[in-house]
Write a structure and sequence with these properties.
This protein has 248 residues and is α/β, with parallel strands linked by helices. It folds into two domains: 112 residues, Rossmann fold (3-Layer(aba) Sandwich); 124 residues, Rossmann fold (3-Layer(aba) Sandwich), CATH 3.40.50.10090. It is built from nine helices and eleven strands.
């Protein structure tokens, strides 16, 4: 079946010439964006109940831009002035670059991984004596605490924000040829919003092993997977599938 409409379960990219824009222009498909989940901050009182005192930590582990935002939000709510000596361990260059929103980059001690959390292992070994704070969501990839525990890192995890399922009731009677998911939480949101969801001819596209696993456990038929050696991005996977489907 041909593809004419796609729903991506994420916010619309802010950049003008995003890969999705190119996909729309080339394949003449309609692409809508709708976050199936959203983030809500936990207040300072809740963080204190977790027995977290920001002054007790000499280093921060930042795995996402959300972690950056909510660490500095809580610091402000607690009237804690983040010292210039604070060390920042960022999972990727994108997270490190985003940190510039709050600190003067060249004047801070910032350590950066390439992309995966494992890229930081060498740095954690080098700075094992630091007291680390891991500001995170209530949903955290198991590999992160498992890696820190294995290395014997002195760290405390703090839940600074929560992943919340969005209300999608207005989409009940809307049909899309492809639904695109990037996390198990997105799959969970689909099923909680539409417990009677029947896939029928709807194609499901998923990114990442954990999302593939969640979709499979939910009994969904997966039609498009990424990343793969041939299609390292979701837009490339969609492009390949649509080209094949629409030429029939």
């Amino acid at each position: 079946m041909k593809v004419k409409t796609i729903l991506v379960s994420q916010p619309e990219p802010k950049m003008e010439n995003s890969p999705y824009s190119k996909l729309i222009d080339k394949e003449k498909v309609k692409v809508d964006f709708r976050p199936f989940i959203h983030v809500e901050g936990v207040d300072a009182k809740n963080v204190r109940l977790q027995k977290i005192d920001l002054k007790n930590y000499s280093a921060i582990i930042l795995t996402s831009r959300n972690a950056v935002d909510h660490y500095f939000r809580i610091a402000e709510e607690m009237r804690f002035k983040v010292p210039d000596s604070m060390k920042y361990f960022c999972q990727s260059e994108a997270v490190a670059f985003y940190l510039q929103k709050y600190v003067i980059y060249r004047k801070r001690k910032i350590y950066v991984g390439k992309m995966n959390f494992d890229d930081l292992v060498t740095l954690f070994k080098k700075y094992k004596d630091e007291a680390f704070l891991l500001p995170s969501s209530d949903v955290l990839k198991p590999i992160i605490p498992a890696t820190l525990d294995k290395l014997g890192v002195n760290y405390t995890r703090g839940i600074f924000y929560k992943t919340v399922i969005s209300d999608l009731s207005d989409l009940r009677d809307v049909y899309y040829d492809i639904l695109v998911f990037f996390s198990p939480s997105g799959i969970e949101s689909l099923l909680k919003n539409f417990p009677d969801f029947k896939q029928n001819d709807t194609r499901i596209a998923v990114y990442g092993d954990s999302t593939i696993e969640a979709a499979t456990e939910a009994g969904l038929r997966i039609d498009i997977k990424a990343p793969t050696p041939d299609t390292p991005s979701m837009t490339m996977a969609l492009q390949k599938y649509i080209t094949e489907a629409n030429k029939k």
